[in-house]
Amino acid sequence: MSQLTLSRADIARLCERVEGAQLGAYAIPKLTDDYPAMTVADGYAVQAELRRRYLARGHRLTGWKAGLTSQAKMRQMGVNVPSIGFLTDHMARPENSAITTADMVHPRVECEIAFVTNKVLRGPGCVLDDVLAATAYVLPAVEIIDSRFSGFKFDLPSVIADNGSSARYVGGGRARYAQDLDLRTLGVVMEKNGEIVAMAASAAVMGHPAAAIAMLVNILAEQGEELAAGSFVMSGGITEAIPVKPGDNVIARFQELGSVSMRFIE
Ligand code: OOG
Ligand code: MG
Q1: Would the pLDDT of 1 be above 90?
Q2: What is the best residue among 40, 47, 65, 73 to mutate for testing ligand 1's pocket, by most ligand atoms within 8 Å of CB?
């Protein structure tokens, strides 16, 4: 990975800035406006500090998410390198629930294939088959992302520091064994208020969504971390993300995996 350029004090300052925006649901300028030399390693250092602070507050780590793993997402965000972020129990929402938007800045939804692991995964050198061998089952998920940066505009170090825009996530549908499916060719259709707003196939995510999980494990290894058994791991938006507002109903229909629904309220 790149070199750290930020001091401990800078990391703490930027972490507080991001944490304030996450908890207060307000937009801030991207971090590189003030710290133009910020690197990807700096972004992960801020994210690690953010994770430490949430866990110290009693939030529980439930898993991880890969982001910017499809061309659709990279094109939409203008960033062409994948990234990872952490997930906690406070971000989880039940299927078919009403999700409040007042505590978010400008939420968007994206459909993803999620993996639940039953063995520890460690990099470097983690590959797709290692992921499949450590997968208990896969299930469909919708991630609600919410960049804390003004206009949903950022660069790679900034979005990594903001925990990959993680905000909420909903797992659901029908859990399946990975070996019973062709994980590359699953069609996904996203509907908002009864209209189709996005569609694609799962190969859009790095050719195979398990490849995104392998990438995530290798990025964790660069930070001296492993993926614990029992993790819930999202492989990244298959289509571009769709903005949502109060009153919207969303249903993501996944071939072979059922559907995941939610509605948004004030
Ligand atoms: C960054 C988060 C990307 C995904 O699935 O690609 C992400 C963003 O687009 O704000 O979660
Ligand atoms: Mg995502």
Answers
A1: no
A2: 73
